[in-house]
Design brief:
209 residues, mainly alpha, 79% helix
Length: 209
């Protein structure tokens, strides 16, 4: 059992590194193996929550929902409010992405509460997830200024992968939002040559203009 726990920790760390280097399929595989070695409880919930984020980042909405359903099954009376709130916000965000009949205002409210609790507990990872969900909801409501504010906060507290993701969405906020064209072009120029998904995302953004 001790050996399995050590292996799970090592796999989880390797998965986090793979995510930060933008190798999302490898990160998901590593975390999936870590989950299989981790007994029921808080550690397994946390790994499944991270795996759900990875699946969502790759557009695998069904797989992400299944991970969050497994998280819910592992919750008990001792599960912290932050975990519950984060789970609710992420599940609503996923259901919106799956084109279910979910009011974006409901997503925004859940994300705001999750972000509040995450700030209170100084949990930057769950804060980042909540802010992403909130930004998605703001975009769906046409509130580009609100989305931009949340994306700025992500860039201050998040991991390298999440900062890249925020920069991508921030480009779209400039393309579609109320900011002056000159300001948007200046921002795009600052991220144009950065590593990660930026170039691909700029191309996607231009295709939608």
């Amino acid at each position: 059992a001790a050996l399995a726990r050590r292996a799970a920790v090592a796999l989880g760390a390797a998965g986090a590194h793979a995510r930060d280097t933008d190798d999302l399929p490898a990160a998901a595989e590593l975390l999936g193996r870590a989950v299989a070695l981790t007994p029921k409880g808080g550690a397994r919930r946390d790994l499944l929550w991270r795996l759900a984020q990875l699946q969502q980042d790759q557009g695998n909405i069904t797989e992400a929902e299944l991970c969050l359903e497994r998280v819910a099954e592992l919750m008990d009376d001792a599960t912290p409010d932050l975990e519950r709130s984060s789970h609710t916000a992420q599940m609503l965000d996923l259901r919106c992405e799956a084109a279910e009949d979910i009011d974006p205002a409901e997503v925004a409210s859940a994300a705001e509460e999750a972000a509040r609790l995450a700030r209170q507990h100084h949990d930057h990872e769950r804060l980042t997830q909540a802010l992403h969900a909130g930004a998605d909801a703001a975009v769906m409501r046409g509130r580009w200024g609100d989305a931009a504010q949340m994306l700025r906060e992500i860039q201050q507290v998040a991991s390298p992968q999440d900062r890249r993701k925020a920069r991508i969405l921030f480009v779209h906020a400039y393309l579609w939002g109320p900011a002056p064209v000159e300001e948007g072009l200046a921002y795009i120029a600052t991220v144009r040559d950065q590593a990660g998904q930026t170039i691909r995302s700029l191309e996607i953004g231009r295709a939608h203009v």
